[in-house]
């Protein structure tokens, strides 16, 4: 398996998790297994979602990835503009915190901080859910640049440093997985890079013996969301099992499964994403002229993100 296969796995896997979990959002634990008792889940749709329809998680990940490619790097005002244009087009699903920050009228470099000052609670999982594309893009730049970029992208919508640090850890785990190494083994090194003010809480949620039942918040918060995704990866043996475990937790199922799919896709590669899901998987992009991406478009996006640095170093023509 090549690093490109793994990169495609991360992006496609995140979208698949999002679409698998969407119909079960805000449901109770165990509902997924009741629906699919033999353990073979389908992109079944429901709750306002068409079969295979990806939600805000993947929509924002695509917008972020396209900005990185079209701007030739991290252009934070451009990312914020794309997010805002999308939010203003009334997407079916948008996180409350993300909506308040994007549509509050404040400029890109102040909006999230001002929201955090007023609300004090700003550690939602919304910066984790869109991380597959940026994690793939920055992986080639190494750990420090990857984690720094993750923090800056998270800070566009999330004023709480806990969200920045969790997003940085997720990016780093994906980077390690793309190298073909075990992201779970890399957790201690990743935690060592976390801001000391946030390290203990992250170490708890990412510990080998942590279970989603140990969560002290709803899994729409950043800690149990990433903790549950890591737990799902750790306690299963395949991409599909990891996603089923994530969705079966209930709660913010699309996002927990999108984050799980990011990690499990990077570990198991693109071929592990069930082929039967791909014909229906699709990503509408509200605010962008009725565009709808299909699985092949996500593959192309992932490949372009994974090879962007090589392209820059050796252009096809002078
Ligand atoms: Mg969603």
UniProtKB/TrEMBL annotation:
Cofactor(s) the record lists: Mg(2+)
Family: Belongs to the ADP-ribosylglycohydrolase family.
GO MF entry, a single one: metal ion binding
Binding site residues for Mg(2+): 55-57, 252, 254-255
Superkingdom, taxonomy of origin: Bacteria
Protein name, per record: Ribosylglycohydrolase
InterPro entries xrefs: ADP-ribosylglycohydrolase (IPR050792), Ribosyl_crysJ1 (IPR005502), Ribosyl_crysJ1_sf (IPR036705)
Record key words, sorted: Hydrolase, Magnesium, Metal-binding
Cofactor-binding details, from the entry: Binds 2 magnesium ions per subunit.
């Amino acid at each position: 398996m090549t690093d490109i296969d793994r990169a495609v796995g991360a992006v496609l896997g995140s979208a698949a998790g999002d679409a698998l979990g969407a119909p079960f959002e805000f449901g109770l634990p165990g509902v997924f297994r009741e629906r699919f008792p033999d353990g073979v889940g389908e992109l079944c749709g429901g709750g306002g979602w068409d079969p295979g329809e990806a939600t805000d998680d993947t929509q924002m990940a695509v917008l972020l990835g396209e900005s990185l490619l079209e701007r030739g790097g991290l252009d934070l005002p451009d990312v914020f503009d794309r997010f805002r244009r999308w939010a203003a087009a009334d997407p079916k699903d948008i996180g409350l915190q993300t909506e308040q920050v994007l549509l509050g009228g404040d400029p890109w470099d102040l909006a999230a901080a001002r929201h955090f000052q007023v609300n004090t609670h700003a550690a939602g999982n919304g910066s984790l859910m869109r991380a597959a594309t940026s994690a793939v893009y920055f992986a080639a730049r190494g750990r420090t640049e990857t984690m720094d970029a993750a923090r800056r992208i998270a800070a566009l919508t999330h004023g709480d440093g806990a969200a920045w640090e969790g997003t940085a850890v997720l990016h780093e785990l994906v980077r390690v997985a793309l190298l073909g190494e075990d992201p779970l083994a890399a957790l201690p090194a990743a935690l060592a890079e976390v801001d000391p003010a946030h390290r203990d809480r992250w170490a708890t949620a990412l510990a080998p013996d942590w279970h989603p039942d140990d969560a002290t918040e709803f899994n729409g918060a950043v800690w149990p969301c990433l903790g549950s995704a890591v737990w799902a990866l750790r306690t299963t043996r395949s991409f599909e099992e990891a996603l089923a475990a994530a969705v079966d937790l209930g709660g913010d199922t699309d996002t927990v499964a999108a984050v799980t799919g990011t990690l499990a896709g990077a570990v198991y590669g693109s071929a592990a994403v069930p082929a039967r899901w791909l014909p229906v998987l699709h990503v509408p992009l509200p605010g962008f002229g009725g565009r709808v991406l299909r699985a092949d478009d996500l593959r192309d996006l992932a490949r372009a993100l994974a090879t962007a640095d090589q392209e820059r170093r050796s252009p096809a023509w002078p």
